[in-house]
Amino acid sequence: MQNGTLVKTIFLKATPEKVWAYLTESEKLGEWFHESDKTLSEGNDYALVTPDGSGTKVCWGKVLKSSPFTKLIYTFTHDHLAGHETTVTWELEPAYGGTQLLMTHTGLEGADEPLNMLASHDGGWDDHLGKLRKKVA
């Protein structure tokens, strides 16, 4: 069996509270990923939108779990996934005066062309996490 899970771990020079804000608050999400139509909160649908103000959805899903400063889980899809739903889990842990952030993205093996989806998301998350690292520092 092949595994379609992406796992990324980074260390950030910021408190878990500050990192949490960048994972959940609409405008802060827009500084490193895509702005959300609302703050991400448990049980609610969300849409990440284009920065041009048109409100065009880039990614969307539903927040499954929100444990402030420790864990955030949401479903995640976009047009290139052609309706296939994946799951993104963020785990935050204090580390040496900063935060260890673990991101796990599951379900990509079920998408059309799974290798392309895995490679694309792998590079995309690297790019976005690099931006997050700069923003929270």
Describe the structure.
It is a single chain. By secondary structure, the protein is of the alpha+beta class. The chain is 28% helix and 38% strand. It contains three helices and seven strands; from the N terminus they run E-H-H-E-E-E-E-E-E-H. The chain has a seven-stranded antiparallel sheet. Helix 1 crosses helix 2. The longest helix has 23 residues. The model has no long low-confidence stretch (mean pLDDT 95).
Brief summary:
The chain has helices at residues 16-24, 26-32, 114-136; strands spanning 6-12, 35-36, 45-49, 57-67, 71-78, 86-95, 98-106.
Features:
137 residues, Alpha-D-Glucose-1,6-Bisphosphate, Chain A, domain 4, 3 helices, globular
Helix-strand makeup class? alpha+beta
Say how many strands there are.
7
- What is the number of independent domains? 1
Strand order of the largest sheet: 1-7-6-5-4-3-2
**Under the CATH scheme, which architecture would be assigned?**
2-Layer Sandwich
* Terminal-residue CA separation: 40 Å
- The CATH homologous superfamily: START domain
Query: CATH class, anyone?
Result: Alpha Beta
Query: According to CATH, what is the topology?
Result: Alpha-D-Glucose-1,6-Bisphosphate, Chain A, domain 4
Biggest sheet details: 7 strands, antiparallel
Q: Please mark out the parts with pLDDT under 50 across 5 or more consecutive residues, or reply none.
A: none
Given the structure, what is the number of helices? 3
Overall geometry: globular
- What percent of residues are in strands? 35-45%
Radius of gyration: 14 Å
Helical content, roughly?
25-40%
Rounded average pLDDT: 95
Order of helical and strand elements:
EHHEEEEEEH
